[in-house]
Amino acid sequence: GAVVSQHPSWVICKSGTSVKIECRSLDFQATTMFWYRQFPKQSLMLMATSNEGSKATYEQGVEKDKFLINHASLTLSTLTVTSAHPEDSSFYICSASPSGIYEQYFGPGTRLTVT
Amino acid sequence: DQQVKQNSPSLSVQEGRISILNCDYTNSMFDYFLWYKKYPAEGPTFLISISSIKDKNEDGRFTVFLNKSAKHLSLHIVPSQPGDSAVYFCAATSGSRLTFGEGTQLTVNP
User: Fold this and answer.
1) Contact flag A102-B93 (C-beta cutoff 8 Å)
2) pLDDT tens, position by position, for chain B (110 residues)?
3) Which residues on B lie below 8 Å from A46 (Cβ)?
4) Does the CA dihedral B73-B79-B84-B85 come out positive or negative?
5) CB contact under 8 A, B89 and A49
6) A96 interfacial to chain B (CB closer than 8 Å)
7) Which of B4, B95, B98 is closest, CB to CB, to A104?
C-alpha cells in the first residue's frame, strides 16, 4: 500500500514553454502533498506544501508564479513549471500524506531538462 | 545554510558486517528524525524514525541512535545485506517541514 506515482518520469522541453507534472496517490487519500526539488549530490529541498482544496504554501525563495501548484482532489496534485528556463532543470519529487509531515510517501520523481 | 548534513557521500561495507551511517544537525528545535532509503528511479521510502525524547530506536536489523548533546544521529544496519545498497537520507523536523541531508550511498559487497 501507500503508492505514489508521478508522471511523466522524465521530460525535455524548450526554454520558454510550460511543463506540468502530476503526482497521484494511488491507494490512499492524501490530505497533504509536498513538492521537492533535488539537485545532483544535494538534498531534497521542499518547494511547497499543498492541502486539498486550498492554496499551496511556498517555501521562502520559491516563486509561486513560476511553480504553480494545484491540489484539486485528495489523490492528485500538479506542479506546473511556467516559462521554463535551463536553470529550472532538476529532479522534482512529490510526496503525499494522509496525515501530515511525519507520514510522507514519495513518488519516483520527474527529471526535467530545459534546453 | 545546511541544517542537516551527511558528511559521507558514500560508504562501502562487506555483507554481514555493520553499516553505520551518520548525520549531523544544527537546529536545536528539531524534535523528530527520520531515515529514508532510496533506490535508483524510485522515491525515498521510510525506514525508521526517532523522537528527541529517546536515544535509541530499533526495528529488526535497523537501529537509530540519537545524541542530542552532540546533535548527531546514526543509523546502524546489522548484518548488512547486498539488498541494502541504496542512498540513505536522514531528515529532521520541528513539526512544519522535513529538512533532508544530502544522502549517503551505501554499497554492500557480497
Assistant:
1) yes
2) 789 999 999 999 999 999 999 999 999 999 999 999 999 888 899 999 999 999 999 999 999 999 999 999 999 999 999 999 999 999 999 888 899 999 999 999 99
3) 97-99
4) positive
5) no
6) no
7) B98
